[in-house]
Amino acid sequence: MLNLLTALCNAWGPAGAEQQIRALIAGYAQAHSTEVQTDTLGNLIVRQGTPGGKRIMLSAHMDEIGLMVTFIDDDGFLRFTTVGGVSPAVLYGQPVRFADGLTGVVHCEKLNDIKDLKIERMYIDIGAESKAAAEERVAIGDMCCYHQSLRQVGKRVVGKALDDRVGCAVLLSVMQQISQTPYDIYYVFSVQEEVGAHGAKTAAFAIEPHLGLAVDVTGVGDTPNTVPLAMKLGAGAAIKVMDRSVICHPKVRGLLDSTAKDKNIPHQVEVLPYGGTDAGPIHTSRAGVPSGAVSIPTRYVHTPGEMVDLSDVQACIDLLTAFLTTKCSW
Known about the structure:
Strand content: 25-35%
Number of helices: 9
Shape: globular
CATH class of the largest domain: Alpha Beta
Strand order of the largest sheet: 1-2-12-3-13-16-14-15
CATH superfamily of the largest domain: Zn peptidases
């Protein structure tokens, strides 16, 4: 798992530019499925199981947050806008990397007060000495993302893009473990979740699943003086009740909960008063899809130092594997 997570998290792939991470995931997926396709929007869809069985769609987004160049000044500094939810306070002083490997650092103009730290006051320094020199390496519209490597800290890992490369790793691991299932399973590695969950919307419309599950990260309440939340690292897979994009179908929640209890899989209840996942667009697709989510508790979401507990990752793999290999009446 550690090697898989490292490869996925270190890969480059901001929302709307997922080509590199998609190719990497496809390489892993092809060993466990004969049907791997990329749809019009760029979602990677892997099919496994019993044709004619009830269709289950599992979706984990492969895109990450990033920045897009909007202007290059005469001295070669790059102005930018955000792609997804990026905080100026987190971004300040961070190294970033472009698709071709070019790196830079984010800094800002002189401030009289830290409260004045805003995206429009910030810039990327790629070491260029002039506008012409910068334009030899970058163009308006180019994107970059955090430049950090995944590292292990005890039984936990820290790095960029665990949101939601850890979900992608879970799906790949589940795919590897399943040899027989009564269901027709569609694993969707979706695009553009960070800018509105567009990929999951189009994939769900095409697949017409009988049941949908998002696999994504969730916030926690186990750090000092934070928002009080029940989720915490090390307590198992988080079975979602609701977030700002979905109130999960009670039958789906019940099936996940009973599976976890029957198999003695560590789990916890997730109520997230903010954010959303691919479950949002899946559950309103076409005439509606009973949907839920299994989440990996994560500290410091949308920073270059996101943290997850590997035991929670394993619990998610165990829960989904058990769910997908047990015939249920629903």
